[in-house]
Amino acid sequence: MKLSVALFFAGLFGALATLAILLSFGTDYWLVAYETCPDPENTGTPVEQGDMVVNQDAADPTVFYHEGFFWLCSFTGRLEASDGENLLKFWFTNQPHSKECKHAYLFPYPVSEASHNATTYDSAIIYRGFWSVFMLVGVAAAVLAGFLLICAAPFSSHCLYKAGGGLYLISALFLLAVTIMFVIWKEALDLVPMYKEYQITKCPLFEMSMDYGFSFMLAPVGVFFCLLAGLLFLLIGRSVQMQCR
């Protein structure tokens, strides 16, 4: 009876972990940001954003971004009075069809070759590369753990239970590293202030705001449930092994 209850909760935690991880991995809202450069003379001058050039006018002086593992997307819109109203622009139903997206696999936003020297740009790419690899390993480990445990259930194989639990713990470890690296990139490294300083040299009225998106929020949830599921499945595998002796 106790083993059945443990299996139920372990399976529930594993399913929640896999769902949260896949949503975090598959949605491009790890970072949400907006930047604006009002033109004092309302001339509608093109403003370079990183290595993107977006034509702006007086009616829509703000560029909104959201970025994840796969895509970096941008669209123009009006800057609202409150941050809450600005964040609402990132919901699927509120975004315009005219937004532009580019691959973000190794794009170290907001670093660009134009705004930084080659050494800084290469270092940012390497950092982003490790972040991407850790993300892929974490997602692959969680998905593989799910398949192993589905196979383990009808046969009560303690080896598969232990392997699935170990993979969930590996997934939690790598996704925790991904989350910490993302926080360090945004809060501790000097890349964002350097980008702001570079833009201010071209636009004295330049303003920028960066926030964590819901894709980022799902990553710690996936880590938490991965840890619970991994520990439970390891204990279940040990219990099944003892019963077989």
Concise structural overview:
This protein has 245 residues and is an alpha+beta fold. The chain is 58% helix and 14% strand. The strands form two sheets. Strands 6-5-4-1-7 form a five-stranded antiparallel beta sheet. The chain has a two-stranded antiparallel sheet with strand order 2-3.
What does this structure look like?
This protein has 245 residues and is of the alpha+beta class. The protein has one domain (3-39, 59-244): Up-down Bundle (Butyryl-CoA Dehydrogenase, subunit A, domain 3), CATH 1.20.140.150. Helices cover 58% and strands 14% of the residues. It contains 6 helices and 7 strands; from the N terminus they run αβββββαβαααβα. The strands form 2 sheets. Strands 6-5-4-1-7 form a 5-stranded antiparallel β-sheet. α1 (2-26) packs antiparallel against α3 (118-155), α1 (2-26) packs antiparallel against α6 (214-244) and α3 (118-155) runs antiparallel to α4 (158-187). The two termini are 19 Å apart. The model is unreliable at 43-60 (pLDDT under 50). The chain crosses the membrane at residues 130-155, 167-185, 214-236. It comes from Clupea harengus. This is Transmembrane protein 182.
- Mean pLDDT, rounded to whole units? 82
Which CATH C-level class is it? Mainly Alpha
The backbone outline, from C-alpha atoms, is elongated
Low-pLDDT stretches: 43-60
Structural class: alpha+beta
CATH topology: Butyryl-CoA Dehydrogenase, subunit A, domain 3
Q: How much is the radius of gyration in Å?
A: 22 Å
User: What portion of the residues fall into strands of 2 or more residues?
Assistant: 5-15%
The biggest sheet amounts to:
5 strands, antiparallel
Question: In percent, how helical is the residue content?
Answer: 55-70%
Task: Name the helix and strand elements from N-terminus to C-terminus, one letter apiece.
Answer: HEEEEEHEHHHEH
Strand order of the largest sheet: 6-5-4-1-7
Euclidean distance between termini CA atoms: 19 Å
Number of strands: 7
Q: How many discrete domains?
A: 1
